[in-house]
């Protein structure tokens, strides 16, 4: 299985929409990730990703054996947070439980620590997403904080956990 993290391309829109248009995927993500997820949503996202300056964020596709499997983003902090990055990622359901997210997160973090001056990468995970928690634990992120009723998603209050990886 070949996993690659790469820049989004306009021609990825149909494949992105196919993987993203899943309620099980959207339920663990911020509301800016729509459901249903249309090809127009995908094109809007890709256009934004291509306009994002590399010094502000790396917005990338996760590709498995030449096919779009999901997305991963590292947003760089600014001002007093300039040495920090915030990580987010998702996979289409057909790619779950295969170690793909674990490898993608490890690869992106290793690259970020090698190519930037980041010293900390953090990720916030909803507690109703144990698979994502396990990804971060496997990649040696440390649990740093627990927040009660932190997120309101689909009219439900959900706790979240903050994980961090230090250089």
From TrEMBL:
One of its GO terms (molecular function) is acyltransferase activity, transferring groups other than amino-acyl groups. It comes from the Bacteria. SUPFAM superfamilies: Acyl-CoA N-acyltransferases (Nat). Residues 3-167 form the N-acetyltransferase domain. Gene3D superfamilies: 3.40.630.30. InterPro entries: Acyl_CoA_acyltransferase, GNAT_dom. This is N-acetyltransferase domain-containing protein. It comes from Butyricicoccus pullicaecorum.
